[in-house]
Amino acid sequence: MNLAVFSAKSYDKTSLTAVVPEQISLHFFESRLTIDTVKLAAGFDAICVFVNDELNREVLTQLKSLGVKYIVLRCAGFNNLDLTACKELGIRCARVPSYSPEAVAEHTVALMMTLNRRIHKAYNRTKEGNFSLSGLMGFNIYGKTVGIIGTGNIGLATARIMKGFGAHVIAYDPFENSKMAESIGFEYTELNTLLTTSDIVSLHCPLTKESHHLLNDASIATMKTGVMIINTSRGGLVDTQSLITNLKSGQIGNLALDVYEQESELFFEDHSSSIIQDDVLQRLLSFPNVIITGHQGFFTAEALEQIAVTTINNLNLFAEEKANPNSLF
Ligand code: NAI
């Protein structure tokens, strides 16, 4: 079995090479998979892709004609994959649904606390001998209402941590998990109630047609003035232009993003010596109460190891024609 790994970074090489069995030969491509790079997949039985690789109908059709039989995603979200086209073309695909929900949940809380206690500003100040506290005042998380949208693996892990802070945790999910709500100690509410009553709103649902721009001018207007919003899920869940408008008016008090609607051309690469053309992103970065990280929520040693193990296992199960709960098709 020949596996072509797209968007490969040094850490992908290390983690996948450590677990790959002899019968699978790996080839790493640094390029992102797009219609322009799809020809690199010629001669491979399977490809391994990540969050910003493009798996639309056109690319999938090319993959099929090049002989690719399997696609293994080394991530949980699969909004970049046209599943209907995959089924029609008969290309089997699988993902890694839950490699380390704590990795993303802990990053969510890191963003929350950095923003709240202005650690990003304090770090720079004290480096320069400035020990003034002016502008660094935060608020206690204890007793605040934290709204979690999406109570899958990551949402539940985040709820668990926030309960440890002594926060009042509420959640919205069209598929409620009442057993976990009771054991962790949070309550389900309607989405509207969550938006109007939360001091902090954290997004943990997948990007779908229904959840696209879930946070927009209309929904943000119903939120508490000065609300903190954290998005470690997918950029398309929020209307970025609305975020800017509402940051300018003060309706949003704090914002942290680990994901961005237009991230595919920028994230995971070093652009520090070039002129970034994305004015929306640059405007967001200019706010003192905004923190952006480059889709690093998943990035822990434990998560990378688990991703590699599951990805290779997904491929083995396809090759052996065995049932696999991680299979999307
Ligand atoms: P999951 O599949 O375990 O849970 C998702 C939950 O969202 C489910 O309970 C589902 O019922 C719910 N949901 C679906 N549509 C919804 C809607 N419109 N409103 C509210 N809830 C809705 O997924 P998991 O593992 O918790 O991951 C969540 C998301 O986190 C992924 O879809 C992915 O986009 C993102 N992610 C981000 C990473 C990062 O590095 N920043 C890494 C891994 C995942």
TrEMBL record:
Family as reported in the entry's similarity comment: Belongs to the D-isomer specific 2-hydroxyacid dehydrogenase family.
Species annotation: Psychrosphaera saromensis
Alphabetical GO biological process terms: L-serine biosynthetic process
CDD domains named in the record: LDH_like_2 (cd12183)
Domain D-isomer specific 2-hydroxyacid dehydrogenase catalytic: 5-326
Keywords associated with the record: NAD, Oxidoreductase
Protein name per UniProt: Hydroxyacid dehydrogenase
GO MF term list: (S)-2-hydroxyglutarate dehydrogenase activity; D-lactate dehydrogenase (NAD+) activity; NAD binding; phosphoglycerate dehydrogenase activity
Domain D-isomer specific 2-hydroxyacid dehydrogenase NAD-binding: 109-297
InterPro entries: D-isomer_2_OHA_DH_cat_dom, D-isomer_DH_CS, D-isomer_DH_CS1, D-isomer_DH_NAD-bd, D-LDH-like, NAD(P)-bd_dom_sf
A Pfam family per the record: 2-Hacid_dh
